[in-house]
Amino acid sequence: MELELPKRLYAEGSEPRVKKINNSCRMELIRDLKKAMCAEYDDVKRDHVFTHIMAIAENDLKFSGKLVDSFICRQLITSKLHEKWFVFARTPLRFSLQEYHAVTGLKITRETNSDVVKWKNDGGFWSNLLHTGGKITLQSIRKVHLQEVHTWTRLDRMRLIYLCVIVGVVMGRDEKVSIPHMYIKLVMDFDKVRKFHWGLHSYDFLLSSIEKAMKKLGKKESYIFEGFSYALHIWIMEAIPDFGETLGRRVSDSFKGPRCGNWKEVAKVSYEDIIELEDSLTKKVKPIPLSTRPVFDPSRFEPVPRGPQFCGLTKWRPNPAPQQTFTDQVRKRSIGEMSITKYHF
After folding, report:
1. Which pTM was predicted?
2. 19 — phi, psi (to 5°)?
3. pLDDT tens digits along 197-221
């Protein structure tokens, strides 16, 4: 018996398309920071809080705007306020805080005594900027300040790297918009950076960005997509291994840690490719009984109320064909790896 799903954002087969998504995650800026301040970059990377986030840039993981856009169009309309449900090959897939944490490893528990307002003036670049109420953007950092960092203190250079990782990747803010002073005050104290709930904070911002994108679907040929878009992208690759195996390569089959650090070299994918794969899975794959679906063990991550759970569908191999197509390239046919075993819409 086929599972009855909530209403879709768009009817199956009627999803709109765009020419381009302007992704606000600035991975090239992270690579520029490494070139300009190699020693300080290595120090920041050794800090566990953003190690796997920075690995995305080092692994040169590419972003597929069409893949992300196609999933935004494949949303299920539910009453859930703090999670998103998508559908692919008529199978529901949950993207909640638990899946987000499994992908990013970012802290999702809020510390009650966290005070981000207070900061100590050390007379450096960032202290002067906060004291005078100055403004700075990722764009001005890239075009102006990167050429001046050799005159800054070592601490201020490290703060710059933390700030760019936070604003340019984890929050995925528009590079032309002024950086909120709250983030600058946080990087003034590295302990506060480590204690801050970046997972919860950035997940909420990503959901709000998805909501904004929904309003632009079918109205514009392109749109700006803010938030940690790579987290959504990697979740799709994990939830539907066909995309992962066709579009990229895992760094290691024995990798342990947040999933964002285990992918590299993603290729392009077209809307036609996505539809072809979905049609193949819809016709050929039958769900595994709920009682037999394995459960993901998130013990190596920070404890969460409900860990992300894994289920799969039966494997399918395409019939041999004279000409290799997108679906022929996939070795394994499964879906819903990062879904859950029970559906509560």
Report:
1. 0.83
2. -80, -30
3. 999 999 999 999 999 999 888 888 8
